[in-house]
Amino acid sequence: MYLSNKALKTLSEHKYAGSDASILYHFVLRHWHNLAIRAIPLWLAPNVVTLIGTAILISGFLCVAYYSPFMTSFMPPWVYYLSGLCLFIYQTMDNLDGKQARRTNSSSSLGELMDHGCDALIVTVQALITAAIANTGPGYLSICILLLLMSPFWFATWETYHTGILNLSVINGPEEGIIFLVIVFILTGFYGPSMWNQEWRLLLGMKEDTLSFIPDFHLNTIVIYAIMIPSIFTCFLSFYNGICEIIKKKKSIFPALQHLITYFMLMAAIITWYLCSTHFSLTHTAIYVKSASNIDSVWFYYPRITQLTVGVAFGDMVSRFILAHLCGEAYPLLPRPLLPIISMAIYSILSYSLFGYVYAEKVMLAVITPVVFIGYGEFVFRTVNQICNYLNIRVFTIP
Fold first, then answer.
1. What is the pLDDT at residue 82?
2. Is 41 exposed, middle or buried (CB count within 10 Å of its CB: 0-12, 13-18, 19+)?
3. Which of 116, 162, 218, 259 is labelled catalytic?
């Protein structure tokens, strides 16, 4: 992606604006962060702080992936504790990078882009860790977690683009959401992962025929459905704030609606790909056994690679959205990173409709995955180089 001199000039003049109304942050976390920042040496660049937190969470993700590749295995207790610790450290470092930038007078638009760009990538990592710990299996429950974490992030980026301010509500994902997951991970290590596959009646000590008109939901299904409420509310709040600000400034709402169309195209492509690929499988996948299925779907056989491919494409889209905001440029209706996901959705529709099964889908995945990863890598490399050269700064050192 090539940035014009006008775009780079606008980026160089950009000033970050944001607010965090989180109750947990103001009463607890900010005191911890003010204490933790003292352990960060003044010579350490803010971008390095960002990458350290990201790398720590990825290391936890790799550990979970080793012990539970299909998100169905019971793992040693220490893995759950480690996952909670890694997520907490990531959250801490995600807050400390901004403090370090202000502390060393090295704040820049590049730091904002790297910070939120890494956060966009980590969304999928968090989703996959959570799915494995909740023992959801590789099916629709894990997809629900992924989409529920992606959606508020997109709407927050959308609101920032159209209002110029990143507003975090009283209860938000980066603060309360992450701490909730940390507690869930630790409790799973203490009580054991088997609790996630127990029906709600057994958890409450009821007989099996009690309230028989209510479906036999397992704990993981109930929790994931419950997460929908704050996720949808957060999206609505970002949408409401964005529209109100646009109307207040007497601007057209059509560009804002266009960017929501982009979001819905992404969601539709992911859901369509999954449904056609798995033959509309909506079974309780916590007890899914790969070898017992005759559905040759990459969502079942290669769940982590498939979801990571979707996640990197999402991270690429969000990073370009953030960059467009920093540069004061328009964001396209159909960004390039979305095309591979749409192509897989179209392929799965044709394969399901014409052949009755997904033919050689893993070959398509083997082609699409490198395209997505390399495309994102190229975007990062080119963008960082252009910004560093224009601003005369270095990525990982303080001037």
1. 97
2. exposed
3. 116
